Amino acid sequence: MTDFLNNKFFAFLKLIRIENLVIVILTQTFLHYLVFQKIFTEANIPSNIYIKLFGLIVISTVLIAAAGYIINDYFDVKTDMINHPETVVLDKTIKRRWAIILHITFTALGVLLGMYTALKTGYLRLALFHILTATALWFYSTHFKKQLLVGNIVVSLLTASVPFITFVFEIAYLQKTIPEFAANHIPVILTASKITLIFCVFAFITSLAREIIKDMEDVAGDKATGGKTMPITWGIQTSKTVCFFLISITIILLLVVIYNTIKYKGELVTMPNMYILFGLVCPLITLLYMVVSANNPKQFKHASVFLKFIMFLGIGYCWIFYFS
User: Fold this and answer.
1) pTM given for the model
2) Total domains, the chain
3) Which of 23, 100, 179, 252 is deepest in the core (most CB within 10 A)?
4) How far is CA 76 from CA 63, 85, 102, 286, 301, in A?
5) Is the dihedral of CA 56, 61, 62, 63 positive or negative?
6) For the segment 284-310, what is each residue's pLDDT rounded down to a tens digit?
7) Rounded to a whole number, what is the largest CA-CA distance in the chain?
8) 68 backbone dihedrals φ, ψ, rounded to 5°
9) Of 199, 259, 197, 151, whose CA–CA distance to 23 is shortest?
10) Do residues 93 and 35 touch, judged by C-beta distance below 8 A?
11) First CA to last CA distance, the chain
12) Phi/psi at 178 (nearest 5 deg)?
């Protein structure tokens, strides 16, 4: 891994968390093309005119997210040198001043693109999403990250905002281009809202659980650098209990989705139900065991990576929705 990160290109990809940015891109792209497009097409609402603007929204979101990862690493070098010295790239392959330059550049471009897309929808106030996100990421890195629960909740809210931003811009643009869209298509908007809410809640809870797992993994470095995270303040066992509760709530909510499908469609064995049951619920049950039995940073790391995989599977539900 160390030799791999000596290459500036790969070090840059590590710095911006390319795998997380891919998840952001897939989340917004799948929601647009597989979920919202299907809903609007079935209602005979033309929305293909939104494609170019949508691409700019994705780019702006990715740029701001990348800037957030960069500034997080910038302020977290000492902690990372204790927890993951082999994966640190700042002060090794990439100089710190370049990290600041990249952060400022990506943030500025992301916010400007966000303002442009908001202007094109006719609702300039939507640019606040991008401005507030960039601001929150800065304060997360400088103030919130090592505070009890505050940093975890901020990151989880930002994660949940990824599908929400897609929905808001989609509806705003349709309202601008189609007269009386909101008044004439209330059922369509409610359907899109409901699905967006499910994705947002899933993203928020799983992200919060993952942040706590990561805090348990990084407890040594956080403690050495003055952190007040949940494992440090309340202990590992309490943190495990909170994680167990969050994962259990996610499982229950997914089972409620299955129940509602059975209730309204009268079918148990459907593609969406089977995907939720075997693609999400069963892995989450496995995760419960991984978290409860974890006793060292390596085991918590495995649980964190596995939860990221489950989040990826959650995004995959868009395909099931499209073909069902």
Assistant:
1) 0.93
2) 1
3) 23
4) 20, 12, 16, 31, 18
5) positive
6) 999 999 999 999 999 999 999 999 999
7) 60
8) -65, -40
9) 199
10) no
11) 42
12) -120, 110
CA 147 to CA 36: how far, in whole Å? Answer: 37
Q: Which two tokens stand for residue 145?
A: 């990250």
Amino acid at 86: E
297-323 and 282-293 helices cross at what angle (nearest 10)? 170
pLDDT digits (tens, 9 = 90+) for 84-104: 888 888 888 899 899 999 999
CB 152 within 8 A of CB 211: yes
Q: Please name the residues in contact with 20: beta carbons below 8 A apart, sequence gap of 6 or more.
A: 65, 69
Position 26: which residue type? L
**Distance of alpha carbon 252 from alpha carbon 260, whole angstroms:** 12
What is the token pair recorded at 228? 């007040």
94 phi and psi angles, rounded to 5 deg: -115, 130
Which residue, chain included where needed, has tokens 């917004």?
A: 28
Domain of 20 in residue numbering reads as: 4-323
In this structure, what DSSP letter does residue 178 have? S
